[in-house]
Structure formats: C-alpha cells, structure tokens
Amino acid sequence: MMAAQKYNARDVRFQIEDYLSPGTWTEFRTANGGSGEGGINTFSRSHEYEAADTTTFGSNGRSETQNMQEGMSLTLEGFRLVDPATGALDPAQSLAELQAARLGTSSLCGFRFAAPGETTWTVWAASTWQLGDVGGGNNDKASWSVTVTRSGPSTTAVIV
C-alpha cells in the first residue's frame, strides 16, 4: 500500500447535475478538469455544527455540549468564463447560476466532487446554490463564485 501524500487542490474535480436532465453531470473547469481555460481556481469546504447545551448543576460551572446537527458547504471561486463569439456563459457556471435562481423544492440539485486518485465521487444528491459577487478592478479578470450547501446526507458513486 502506498503512503498517503499531498495532492494539488487544482486537480480536485467538481460537477453539477443538470436539473433539466437528472443523471447528466457537467464539470466545472479547473486547472486540469473540464475543457479549455480553467475558471475555478480556489475552493473551500466548510463544516457547520449545531450543538445542544447539556450543562447541569453537576457540571460544576463547566460547559457541556453535544453535537446535534452537522452541515457542510463548499465554495468555488475563480473567473467568470464567457464565450467571446456567442456571449454564452461556461456550461457549469450557467447551470449554477440558473440553479441559484430556483426556489423551494426546485432549489435542490445534485453536486459531486473528488480528489485526484479517488475512485468514488462524494455526492450531495440534494444541495442548494447561492451565487457570490461578480466583479473586478481595472486590471482584473471578472471574478465568479458560488457556495453549494448540502441538504441531507452525503453518499458516494463510482467514478466511471
């Protein structure tokens, strides 16, 4: 068995499920993922916890808690990619922007990601999407970001 080793963040893959065609996945362009110029150049996965206070008089002034709920989100950041000939937004970024505008039960769609060498995707079968700011300065390329928040449990799927 090979020893565990560091991997390049730029080689992690991210995909959004097309809400109009369930089971169809579109990859976000990164350094090595997707096709053509990469748009995503930063990601961060966050964990959130909801804890219950279980302190009693017997705790002798020391706080006691228990985790009751665990949540997870992942933020993708980078450059907004537009086809200069057609004005069309990058396919994955376009799906994310359309998904972020959906409300209620329609606001949920699939998201999956995998690190280099992994043989399975981490799948969030239901996730919500919130867009970040788009902008830039005089000598910048336009930025783009989205935060994906898991709704329910994570699952896995074999990478084919």
Low-confidence stretches: none
Rg calculated over all Cα atoms: 19 Å
What is the typical, i.e. mean, pLDDT?
94
Span from first to last CA?
A: 23 Å
Elements, N to C (H/E): EEEEHEEEE
The amount of beta strand, in percent, is 35-45%
Structural class: mainly beta
Helical amount? under 10%
* Largest sheet: number of strands, sense, barrel closure: 8 strands, antiparallel
Count of strand segments: 8
What would you note in describing this structure?
Strands 1, 2, 3, 4, 5, 6, 7 and 8 form an 8-stranded antiparallel beta sheet that branches. The protein has 1 helix and 8 strands. Helices cover 6% and strands 42% of the residues. By secondary structure, the protein is mainly beta. The chain is globular.
Helices and strands, with pairings:
Layout: E1 13-17, E2 25-27, E3 40-53, E4 65-79, H1 91-100, E5 109-114, E6 120-131, E7 143-150, E8 155-158
Antiparallel strand pairs: 1-2, 1-5, 3-4, 4-7, 5-6, 6-7, 6-8
Give keywords:
1 helix; 6% helix; 8 strands; 160 residues
